[in-house]
């Protein structure tokens, strides 16, 4: 065995992991468990006379050995057989049969695939994470702050909530669709009417009063003052606990105060202004209003409106907020819900958090942070294609059962293997993420397999991607290499994982750190995502330590979250250091 020489100045005390572990485990999980989960979700096929249920599946040995595939230009793949149970409802008869449903390409020992005799690599995709994201932007002309909430499910339609200069919360139930007042959707998801909405959002708030603008001071009238209103020399105009009235406004004018901020308590003025724009008064009217958005020229009934709204907001088959969305939502709102849809409580949390951003209580999200971007692994990408093919099989089986006599139905005839196999063949042969493997040398091959792409279906487009998404972000530290990216149009959109980076079960990139206890570096290793890391003070790996692993210097350079929210290097006492990098 050849001797391995390490020429680095700072020696690593942590072994280098298997560089292709993520790729291999994700695809192994797809073959061993993923296919079963997909078939359980898609089936049964339920018709008037017959029901077809999924029982289990198995993956056979490879159709051909690797050497034969290379010689004849074939795909290295295996057959997938599934057992289905056919129940005849009229007679009660039950038949079970194994059916060949697909040919699935197998991963080679080097984590590549052999497709038509050529080695191909499926590049993992870095995309925006599902979840709820809050952003603000300032209008350059008017100086008004605009607010935007983007709601991204694991599967389904994106929704957007926006607030502009008119202080009205609007929601788009689909991207680029006409917007409606947010309160109409609140009624559709469980609020009984306007009174319940008004009582839910009673809170302290800060209102900017312009004595020359009725629009600004009218929203404060009738609300209880939380703090005193004073002149610049400290003279109190109105005391806390009193109600803001026209008399107080007159006193402001008398003292030549044109602009001031008052803190009051009452029904939030955004909610009040939104209800003024909302033409609905109860859940049924709200559902009808939503139905008219989708079918403006059709005659509307309460039953049809209820069916549409339930499908749009309450059906996890169409809009599923699980598992990644629910993980992110629970983390943001400090909840422990397991619901696959957005509940009434979730909508209350969304509106409350948005109002908190306006008040400066909560903070907006950084969409370029790796805490808000996740990786779709090879197993997940192939599973998505398999699910699309299985959904087509489900539709075709239902159609064939409906036009065939019950006594003539055979499972092998209603379930075709060509559908899923064709979907997978198209992905491996034509997808932007399936590429011919770089075979210049073994290092270039490994690098290619560890690459991350922000392009492809569901990702960004190189012509529309801005500078912010391409730029190096502080959350990339220990996770994504800041240097290895191509020049030209793809700069910043194609990246590589760092040596010690990992991926958790939700697809977020993790980094390894050593625990530091009262200035002493321990051997305990922790694995943290980008948002978890922000809570700690982290020293560099090359920080000098003595033979007892105690940090030598009284002050060390460490990364710490600043008041602005950025992670910045600064000198901190060694006792305050909580973690240390694995490698420099």
Q: What attributes does this structure have?
A:
seven-stranded mixed β-sheet; five-stranded antiparallel β-sheet; alpha+beta; Rna Polymerase Beta Subunit, Chain: C,domain 2; Molybdopterin biosynthesis moea protein, domain 2; single chain; 584 residues; Rna Polymerase Beta Subunit, Chain: C, domain 4
What portion of the residues fall into strands of 2 or more residues? Answer: 25-35%
- Tell me the number of helical segments per DSSP (H or I, 4 or more residues long): 17
Largest sheet: number of strands, sense, barrel closure:
7 strands, mixed
Rg over C-alpha atoms, rounded to the nearest angstrom: 30 Å
Give the oligomeric state. Answer: single chain
**Ranges with pLDDT <50 over ≥5 residues?**
none
Mean pLDDT: 92
Question: Class of one domain, according to the CATH hierarchy?
Answer: Alpha Beta
The strand count comes to: 28
CATH-derived topology of one domain:
Rna Polymerase Beta Subunit, Chain: C,domain 2
CATH architecture of one domain: Alpha-Beta Complex
The helicity comes to 25-40%
Task: Identify the overall geometry.
Answer: flat
- The end-to-end distance, rounded to whole angstroms, is 29 Å
Structural class: alpha+beta
């Amino acid at each position: 065995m050849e001797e391995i020489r390490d020429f680095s100045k700072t020696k690593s005390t942590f072994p280098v992991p298997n560089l292709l572990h993520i790729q291999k485990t994700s695809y192994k999980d797809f073959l061993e468990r993923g296919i079963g989960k997909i078939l359980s979700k898609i089936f049964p096929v339920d018709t008037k006379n017959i029901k077809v249920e999924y029982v289990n599946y198995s993956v056979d040995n490879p159709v051909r050995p690797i050497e034969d595939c290379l010689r004849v230009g074939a795909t290295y793949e295996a057959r997938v057989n599934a057992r289905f149970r056919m129940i005849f409802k009229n007679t009660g008869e039950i038949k079970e049969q194994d059916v060949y449903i697909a040919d699935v390409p197998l991963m080679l020992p080097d984590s590549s695939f052999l497709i038509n005799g050529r080695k191909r690599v499926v590049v993992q995709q870095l995309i925006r994470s599902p979840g709820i994201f809050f952003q603000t932007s300032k209008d350059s002309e008017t100086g008004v702050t605009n607010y935007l909430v983007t709601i991204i499910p694991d599967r389904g339609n994106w929704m957007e909530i926006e607030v502009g200069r008119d202080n009205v919360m609007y929601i788009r139930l689909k991207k680029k669709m006409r917007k409606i007042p947010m309160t109409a959707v609140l009624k559709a998801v469980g609020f009984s009417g306007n009174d319940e909405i008004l009582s839910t959002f009673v809170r302290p708030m800060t209102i900017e009063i312009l004595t020359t603008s009725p629009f600004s001071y009218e929203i404060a009238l009738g609300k209880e003052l939380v703090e005193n209103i004073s002149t610049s020399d400290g003279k109190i105009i109105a005391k806390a606990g009193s109600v803001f009235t026209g008399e107080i406004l007159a006193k402001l004018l008398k003292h030549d105060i044109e602009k001031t901020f008052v803190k009051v308590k009452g029904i939030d003025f955004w909610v009040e202004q939104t209800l003024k724009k909302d033409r609905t008064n109860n859940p049924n009217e709200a559902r009808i209003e939503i139905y008219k958005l989708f079918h403006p020229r059709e005659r509307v009934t309460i039953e049809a409106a209820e069916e549409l709204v339930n499908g749009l907001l309450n059906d996890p088959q169409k809009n599923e907020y699980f598992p990644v969305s629910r993980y992110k939502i629970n983390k943001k709102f400090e909840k422990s819900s397991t619901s696959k849809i957005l509940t009434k409580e979730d909508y209350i949390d969304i509106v409350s958090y948005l109002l908190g951003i306006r008040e400066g209580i909560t903070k907006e999200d950084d969409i370029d942070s790796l805490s808000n971007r996740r990786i779709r692994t090879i197993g997940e990408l192939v599973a998505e294609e398999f699910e699309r093919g299985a959904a087509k099989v489900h539709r075709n089986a239902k159609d064939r059962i409906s036009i065939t006599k019950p006594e003539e139905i055979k499972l092998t005839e209603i379930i075709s293997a060509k559908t899923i196999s064709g979907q997978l063949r198209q992905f491996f042969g034509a997808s932007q993420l399936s590429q011919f493997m770089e075979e210049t040398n073994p290092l270039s091959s490994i690098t290619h397999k560890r690459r991350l792409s922000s392009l492809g279906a569901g990702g960004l487009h190189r012509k529309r991607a801005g500078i912010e998404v391409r730029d190096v972000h502080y959350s990339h530290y220990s996770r994504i290499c800041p240097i290895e990216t191509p020049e030209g149009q793809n700069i910043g959109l194609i990246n590589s994982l760092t040596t010690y980076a990992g991926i958790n079960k939700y697809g977020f990139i993790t980094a390894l750190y050593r625990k530091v206890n009262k200035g002493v570096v321990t051997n305990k290793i922790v694995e943290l995502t980008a948002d978890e890391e922000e809570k700690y003070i982290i020293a560099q790996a090359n920080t000098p330590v003595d033979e007892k692993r105690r940090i030598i210097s009284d002050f060390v350079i460490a990364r710490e979250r600043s008041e602005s929210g950025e992670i910045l290097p600064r000198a901190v006492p060694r006792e305050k250091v909580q973690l240390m990098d694995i490698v420099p």
